[in-house]
Amino acid sequence: MTSHSVAEQTRRALEVHLLDGSWPVGMRLPAERVLAETLGVSRNTVREAIFCLKERGLLFSRHGSGVFVSDRLQTAISSPWRQLVAAHPDLRWDTLEFRRELEGATAYYAALRANASDLEKIEGIVRRLTDAYDTGEKEEEYRADADFHEAIAEASHNSMFLYLHSGIVRMLREHICLNLMAMEDPTGDVTEHLRQQHLGIWDRIRAQQPDQARQAMLAHIDFTWSELARREDTRTSQ
């Protein structure tokens, strides 16, 4: 194995710790010696991998204290999370799986607890989203889609759901944007499916039908999953 491939493999191993949450924001990294022994590489290789992640803003140094995990992955407007998805494609499916559980629950409780202000906010977002579908303004579609899911989490009035959702909201926005870009379809069939799914979720929430709202949300996430998987299968078989 070349020194370049060893360094690349080491960098990817460190990235996994950032992705799976085992290295949370603010954590001090183990010493280079410990990392080198754990990964079975030289300290110079570890130092090079850390340098690359510092260059991307994912890690930072404090003089005399060590190397720490930054909040860049969660808070950057142009998030390096998108780059990491490209290098770690399984993350897309992990995130969808997480979203399926979280957002099915938030839709359920939003249907139970949404007040007049919540419903007015969601209705306004639905109008923006349907207008974007009609005009083909993709950037507005991405924003409105993410706003829709965020507003439902807020309408659940559950502090833990809100904490989880707000803690990763930028990453979820990136995830939604990436998925929509990957599902673009010149025939308009996918767009029409998404329109009907979002309207169905909204209808169930405003009708105060929690079980149906949950099922509508799960069907929406499942459609996204199956459509992305179908396209990936097509690419790999070509």
From TrEMBL:
<protein>
    <recommendedName>
        <fullName>Pyruvate dehydrogenase complex repressor</fullName>
    </recommendedName>
</protein>
<dbReference type="Pfam" id="PF00392">
    <property type="entry name" value="GntR"/>
</dbReference>
<dbReference type="Pfam" id="PF07729">
    <property type="entry name" value="FCD"/>
</dbReference>
<keyword id="KW-0804">Transcription</keyword>
<keyword id="KW-0805">Transcription regulation</keyword>
<dbReference type="InterPro" id="IPR036388">
    <property type="entry name" value="WH-like_DNA-bd_sf"/>
</dbReference>
<keyword id="KW-0238">DNA-binding</keyword>
<keyword id="KW-0678">Repressor</keyword>
<dbReference type="InterPro" id="IPR036390">
    <property type="entry name" value="WH_DNA-bd_sf"/>
</dbReference>
<dbReference type="InterPro" id="IPR011711">
    <property type="entry name" value="GntR_C"/>
</dbReference>
<dbReference type="InterPro" id="IPR000524">
    <property type="entry name" value="Tscrpt_reg_HTH_GntR"/>
</dbReference>
<dbReference type="InterPro" id="IPR008920">
    <property type="entry name" value="TF_FadR/GntR_C"/>
</dbReference>
<feature type="domain" description="HTH gntR-type">
    <location>
        <begin position="4"/>
        <end position="72"/>
    </location>
</feature>
<comment type="function">
    <text>Transcriptional repressor for the pyruvate dehydrogenase complex genes aceEF and lpd.</text>
</comment>
